[in-house]
Every structure is written in structure tokens, then in C-alpha cells.
Amino acid sequence: MNFSLPNLDYSQNGLEPIIDADTVRIHHTLHHQAYVTNLNNACKEQNISKTNTEILSVLQDSQLMANAAIRNNGGGHYNHSLYWYILKPLSISSATSQGEKIEPESDSSVTSLVIVQGLIQQHGSLSNLKDKMTAEGLKRFGSGWVWLCIDKTNEKSSMIVTTPNQDNPLMNLTGSVDSNNWQPVIGIDVWEHAYYLKYQNRRKEYLDDIWYLIDWNKVNDVYNSPNGLPNGALD
Ligand code: MN3
Asked: Is the predicted pLDDT of residue 176 greater than 60, yes or no?
């Protein structure tokens, strides 16, 4: 067994109109698949054989992270697995039969979550949190990710960080967060391949829009998963 590409919980056009089907297809079956293939090749060179449920142990192994191919592709595999997992199609409005952007604050299944209550307490509102994540995502020069991390021992403590390339807050990198305490629960890909077909250079619009695709119940599952990702994100 090797690392493998997880399936999406929605169809390739399921995130439209916010993320178009072509972007999902290319991003998932070509970009993410390439990270998986290259990670398996890099592991084979080191005589390592691991599967998806062991990805966290790879990211937290400082010797493996010193290998650029394993760091870049291992990060790529984890980061994209999280990204696909926490997204969901827009809810369909019964009035128009079209997907609607619903503010998470108006959804009681979201606001009843303890982690969401903690985020509202800390940031004032989810809308403020979105604005902060968008601002940080815009500041990340070139390719990288913007993350929301929540303290594993205190669900009312969170931080927003960005990383370059396919780095990740769990990697114990100098200047990054202490991965023993902080669980990344939302990771938003700000590589141009994530949005360029529809948004071109308008990264802010992509960052504002993707907010409406976030599945907070899955974000909650990620927070509560001891292996960094729930099994549903890995198969
Ligand atoms: Mn990507």
C-alpha cells in the first residue's frame, strides 16, 4: 500500500459557481494526484512505505522534512486532502433552485458548535474572521496557504497563519506554530492553480467566495481527529 488520492464527497461541478468544474478536475486529478505520485516515488527512494493514515507522522518527522521532495509532496498531499474535505456545495435555495451563499452565522447547525462559539468570542464574528483570513491570504506573496489553527487544549484559542509553497503548520518548521498544540482546521490554497481559471488575478474575490463553501461540521471533525485528518478526508 502507498499514499493514494482521496475521493471527493461531491462531483467536480459540485462547487460551482464558486469553484468551476474544470478547476476542481485539474486541481484534484492532476495537481493533487501529482503530489501523491511524487510522494510515493520519494518515499520509495528512502525505502519507506506509508499510507494516507500515516501522513501526519511523515510531516512531523524532522529527518523526512529535510528531504525536499518528501516535504513538498507530503505537504501537498496533506494540505489538499484537508482542503477538499472541508468544502461542500452551496445549499440550494428552494425559491430559485440555485446555490445560495448563506452566512454561516445564520445556520444554527454551525453556531451550535463549540469551536465556532469560540471563534465568534475571539474574533467578534465569523465575518471578522473571514476578513482576517482574506487579508492574510492576500499578504502571502506567490504560492502558499492561509490557515486557521485552533489550540488542541483550548478550543477558544485560535490563530491565523500563512505558509509558503506546500508547507504546513504541522511541520514544526522554524518560525511556524508549535504543531503539538495547534491543529490546522481550515486550509485555503492560494496557489494560482486553485482559482486562476475563474478569478484570474482576483485572489481577494476567491478568498471571499470560498468562505461560503466551508463545511463547519467537517471543520469540527478535523479539530477532533487525533491523526490530523479524519478518515473521511483520507479515503
Ligand atoms: Mn493546490
From this structure: no
